[in-house]
Amino acid sequence: WKYIGSSESYAQQLNHSNLNVVSPRWYTLSNSGNFVSISADTKYLQDAHSKGKKVWPLFGNKFDPDLTDAVLNNAANRKKLVLALKDSLVQTKSDGINVDFENIHPKNKQDYVLFITELKKALQPNEIKVSVDVTRENSDPFWSGSLVRNYLRHCLLC
Questions:
Q1: Any residues with CB less than 8 A from the CB of 155 and at least 6 apart, and which?
Q2: Closest Cα partner for 24 from 43, 78, 15?
Q3: Could you say which of 40, 55, 120, 140 has the lowest number of CB atoms within 10 Å?
Q4: Which 3-state string (H, E, C) describes the chain?
Q5: pLDDT tens digit string along 34-45?
Q6: Alpha carbons 99 and 148: distance in angstroms, whole number
Q7: Residue 91's closest CA among 45, 24, 32?
């Protein structure tokens, strides 16, 4: 996971022989346009690939439950978001995407699962993998309560 470091430190991390996947923070949920802010670094991706590493950019929601609700509870917004992510991932030749949404309204758990299902379906023809970060179980419904493991397991296995 690449976050708060220099380009040099990230390049050095690619030299670790036991590292096989890197996840640079390139995508952030946004409330405008295609609902995603993109800061892809194709040089980093090329360097990673040249060293045999897979690149699965991280996509975060800024821990913002209201923004997440506004985007995920609307089918047209989800579709726009999925297409923007697909276009960018294909263009950059990314190997996967790591979705790290945290602090989600409990009412959006089905919307989130639907989003992951739609994203996976859109990326499958390009053989782009989807991984999901899931918080450990705790009593806060905005953290683990909004991520129903059985639903996520279902959408990732189908």
A1: 113, 114, 116, 117, 120
A2: 43
A3: 140
A4: CECCCCHHHHHHHCCCCCCCEECEEEEEECCCCCCEEECCCHHHHHHHHHCCCEECCEEECCCCHHHHHHHHCCHHHHHHHHHHHHHHHHHHCCCEEEEECCCCCHHHHHHHHHHHHHHHHHHHHHCCEEEECCCCCCCCCCCCCCCCHHHHHHHHHC
A5: 999 999 999 999
A6: 15
A7: 45
Indicate whether this model's pTM tops 0.90. Answer: no
Query: Percent of the chain beyond pLDDT 70?
Result: 82
130-156 pLDDT, tens digit each:
999 887 676 766 665 555 554 555 555
